[in-house]
Amino acid sequence: xxxxxIKNRKIGDGYPAYIIAEMSANHSGSIxxxxxxxxxxxxxxxxxxxxxxxxxxxxxIDCHNQYFQIENGTWEGENLYSLYGxxxxxxxxxxxxxxxxxxxxxxxxxxxxxTTSVDFLEELGVDFYKIASFEMIDLPLLRYIASKGKxxxxxxxxxxxxxxxEALEAIYEMGNxxxxxxxxxxxxxxxxDDMHLRTIADMKKEFDIPVGLSDHSMGHLGAxxxxxxxxxxxxxHFCISRDIENPDASFSMEPAEFKEMxxxxxxxxxxxxxxxxxxxxxxxxxxxxRRSVFVVKDLKKGDVITAEHVRVIRPGYGEKPKYMDDIVxxxxxxxxxxxxxxxxxxxxxxxxxxxxxxxNTEIPYEIAKEYDGHxxxxxGNKVTLDLVQKMQPAIIVCQKYKHGIPEDVVEFMNGRxxxxx
Length: 421
Prior knowledge:
There is one protein chain. This protein is of the alpha/beta class. The protein is 30% helix and 17% strand. It has helices at residues 31-43, 56-59, 80-87, 94-104, 115-124, 139-146, 161-173, 199-207, 221-228, 255-272, 324-327, 362-369, 385-391, 407-413; strands at residues 4-6, 9-11, 18-22, 48-53, 107-112, 129-131, 152-155, 179-184, 211-215, 233-237, 292-295, 310-313, 352-355, 376-379, 395-399, 417-420. The strands form four sheets. It has an eight-stranded parallel sheet. Helix 6 (139-146) links the parallel strand 6 and strand 7 (152-155). It starts with a strand and ends with a strand. The relative contact order is 0.09.
């Protein structure tokens, strides 16, 4: 998968999720509150704060017929022009807000909604751009943004697969491949039934670029689940308090909630880890509680082990239980008291180790037993270097042995391995 780079941060698989605090209309008309939001976002663990660059006139027209009235949802009864007038961030604030973000060390970017806002942000010196879901189908605008050669994070709410492809192609046409896309439910607030977070994995497979979630749902369940499913970016609306009235407050997170979300996301990332089999460092001390083979009846040198002498029990200091059938019938080379773990180093040294898992090898096994001066031990399970080093056989004879002999065992035996056909 491709990655993108925003300043000194790489975004993509193998890197921490990039977390964006969306200010939107939560400044409620106060530049001081806007600065407070930037500082609070930093303190809450956000990597970036995002604003929007538009005016009512760059988004729509001042018309009040039925086409411009909102009929349902959070903004039911509002007129578009009037709503955008309440929500927009004055352009004369942008420079101060960017300076505040730069001062405290949090990334800052914006969503432009027309070419004039792109030009304005270029003069401001933003490092990357956001494209809103509703603007994803404005291919001329996408091409203009892409022509600036800066990374783009694009929401895809309501987008069909074909529309997302068209949008990406428009960006790629301008020679810009620094793109991440966000799964998004363009409802405010979004409900769990409409989020379809499994789409994140499909988008990554389909488009081979970083994918994240622009989350308009309440709480942090959507965000943490998305990260568990592979999201590379999380965007969430952010406010100082939902009690401060503005068009976006009702579905925004307060600082304590946002901080908890960030902490949960980082814990999820740790828990996801890497593909790993075996004993973790924390589990190392628990190995002793696994089952293993123990001597449960005294053995004297020369005794042949029977099922009465050994059992598979806890703790785990003896050989693995899979060797139990191999162990019964072996002759010990020293005295062993009951309560001690059975390990292969209690067997007679300088033996013949006969490896086979085929019962039809009885004749060569009997011949090997008659070989003067050597005890013969037959093992059908897979041998390891540790096992062979404990037994120290004179020679290994192998016939119809499905496991094969590990290379490190062959090297240790230094030519003393005989394979019978």
